[in-house]
Amino acid sequence: MPIKANDPKRKTWLETSPDTDFPIQNIPFGVFLTRDDIITIGTRIGDYAIDLGALHQLGYFKGIDLTDDIFLQDTLNDFISDGRKTWRLVRDRIAEIFDKENPTLRDNEKHRSHILFTLDEVEMQLPVQVGDYTDFYSSKEHATNVGTMFRGKENALMPNWMHIPVGYHGRSSSIIPSGINIRRPWGQTLPADNTEPVFGPSKLVDFELEMAFITTDANVLGEPIPVNEAEEYIFGLVLFNDWSARDIQKWEYVPLGPFLAKNFASSISPWIVTLDALQPFKVEGPKPEVEQLPYLQYKGKKSYDINLEVYIAPENGDETKICTSNFKYMYWNMSQQLAHHTVNGCNVNSGDMMGSGTISGKTPDSYGSMLELTWRGEKPLTLSDGTERKFINDNDTVVMKGYCKNNEVRIGFGECRSKLLPAIKQ
Ligand code: MN
């Protein structure tokens, strides 16, 4: 089934700027609160938020098998459960409705007034209820950098790393949408030269530049998902800032891995860009350096060329770009991650979120965390206001951006923005 919504030649009757992340070829999905205090599922074209609940009530999805209330919900989980064929039909229909040549909604002012909102009239919500959240560790450069810092160059990669998309089960309750500020966490740390831990606000709060994919109901308990079918069960992706407290992490992570250093907050961009919209940007990923077990061997292109950027803005200051990376650098791709996650029969549900792990490239300006960018604080970064950063300071805002671009179309993710407020008083 061709994806009509991806037609790069299509133009829309809505006014959009040429460099928008959200041209009519994107058609992402999100959830927002409207000016009338109603929560609805929507999409975005240019700087317009589009109420899909209202569109459906007015009959614009006639002929597509959808329940009456599918878009009148406060999460996308049920729509995602409907499966890939439905997502595709709905995106194709939205493309038709907003096509420049289609007068039906274009010339109906009354309908337009129910359906269209400017971005300042809506408040973005979490797009899905995340039942389970898993975080991988799939960038070889990131794993090598961190391993080198903690164990030395010779033992940088653990022996399992080249064979397994290493991951752990994270916590979903603290996943928050872009725009929600977080607090510097308190916790136990072991300061250098101490033998006993101390309790206090983390001194080493960091971001992790990641992307996360959102699944549909993929399998029943006991049945694995084959690597070459995995993409059928991936609805789309968001930008993902996996906030981390490095000093807490260093003390607590042995032997079961990250816990309180990671679960105080993870921020996501609010619009889920569908895997369908990203099809023009499929690329080959890094070649396996050692032979992988058959259940991880895949055919074709399974990586995506998504440019990623991180900025820091101090309070009342300008943003400074501190990192330029790309999703295609990942050694293990999403299909391998999902195949591995389910190979033991673990079941995956609609709305589950899978973090990629920090995405670092080969060059120092492409490292996806302050831990790597400043090499544990040994090489501080200088922001445009002249101040230095080893990690994230109180009242700094971390902004992540992501976009794909070819000579026909730009498909972007918007922003994942979150400010680190000082620790609460205890
Ligand atoms: Mn992470």
Automatic annotation (TrEMBL):
<dbReference type="Pfam" id="PF01557">
    <property type="entry name" value="FAA_hydrolase"/>
</dbReference>
<dbReference type="InterPro" id="IPR036462">
    <property type="entry name" value="Fumarylacetoacetase_N_sf"/>
</dbReference>
<feature type="binding site">
    <location>
        <position position="262"/>
    </location>
    <ligand>
        <name>Mg(2+)</name>
    </ligand>
</feature>
<keyword id="KW-0378">Hydrolase</keyword>
<feature type="binding site">
    <location>
        <position position="135"/>
    </location>
    <ligand>
        <name>Ca(2+)</name>
    </ligand>
</feature>
<feature type="binding site">
    <location>
        <position position="208"/>
    </location>
    <ligand>
        <name>Ca(2+)</name>
    </ligand>
</feature>
<keyword id="KW-0460">Magnesium</keyword>
<dbReference type="InterPro" id="IPR015377">
    <property type="entry name" value="Fumarylacetoacetase_N"/>
</dbReference>
<feature type="binding site">
    <location>
        <position position="151"/>
    </location>
    <ligand>
        <name>substrate</name>
    </ligand>
</feature>
<feature type="binding site">
    <location>
        <position position="358"/>
    </location>
    <ligand>
        <name>substrate</name>
    </ligand>
</feature>
<comment type="pathway">
    <text>Amino-acid degradation; L-phenylalanine degradation; acetoacetate and fumarate from L-phenylalanine: step 6/6.</text>
</comment>
<dbReference type="GO" id="GO:1902000">
    <property type="term" value="P:homogentisate catabolic process"/>
</dbReference>
<dbReference type="Pfam" id="PF09298">
    <property type="entry name" value="FAA_hydrolase_N"/>
</dbReference>
<dbReference type="InterPro" id="IPR011234">
    <property type="entry name" value="Fumarylacetoacetase-like_C"/>
</dbReference>
<feature type="binding site">
    <location>
        <position position="242"/>
    </location>
    <ligand>
        <name>Ca(2+)</name>
    </ligand>
</feature>
<feature type="domain" description="Fumarylacetoacetase N-terminal">
    <location>
        <begin position="25"/>
        <end position="127"/>
    </location>
</feature>
<dbReference type="GO" id="GO:0006572">
    <property type="term" value="P:L-tyrosine catabolic process"/>
</dbReference>
<feature type="binding site">
    <location>
        <position position="210"/>
    </location>
    <ligand>
        <name>Ca(2+)</name>
    </ligand>
</feature>
<dbReference type="GO" id="GO:0006559">
    <property type="term" value="P:L-phenylalanine catabolic process"/>
</dbReference>
<comment type="similarity">
    <text>Belongs to the FAH family.</text>
</comment>
<feature type="binding site">
    <location>
        <position position="242"/>
    </location>
    <ligand>
        <name>Mg(2+)</name>
    </ligand>
</feature>
<protein>
    <recommendedName>
        <fullName>fumarylacetoacetase</fullName>
        <ecNumber>3.7.1.2</ecNumber>
    </recommendedName>
</protein>
<dbReference type="GO" id="GO:0046872">
    <property type="term" value="F:metal ion binding"/>
</dbReference>
<dbReference type="GO" id="GO:0004334">
    <property type="term" value="F:fumarylacetoacetase activity"/>
</dbReference>
<feature type="binding site">
    <location>
        <position position="137"/>
    </location>
    <ligand>
        <name>substrate</name>
    </ligand>
</feature>
<feature type="binding site">
    <location>
        <position position="253"/>
    </location>
    <ligand>
        <name>substrate</name>
    </ligand>
</feature>
<keyword id="KW-0106">Calcium</keyword>
<dbReference type="InterPro" id="IPR005959">
    <property type="entry name" value="Fumarylacetoacetase"/>
</dbReference>
<keyword id="KW-0585">Phenylalanine catabolism</keyword>
<feature type="domain" description="Fumarylacetoacetase-like C-terminal">
    <location>
        <begin position="134"/>
        <end position="419"/>
    </location>
</feature>
<feature type="binding site">
    <location>
        <position position="266"/>
    </location>
    <ligand>
        <name>Mg(2+)</name>
    </ligand>
</feature>
<feature type="binding site">
    <location>
        <position position="249"/>
    </location>
    <ligand>
        <name>substrate</name>
    </ligand>
</feature>
<feature type="active site" description="Proton acceptor">
    <location>
        <position position="142"/>
    </location>
</feature>
<dbReference type="InterPro" id="IPR036663">
    <property type="entry name" value="Fumarylacetoacetase_C_sf"/>
</dbReference>
<keyword id="KW-0828">Tyrosine catabolism</keyword>
<keyword id="KW-0479">Metal-binding</keyword>
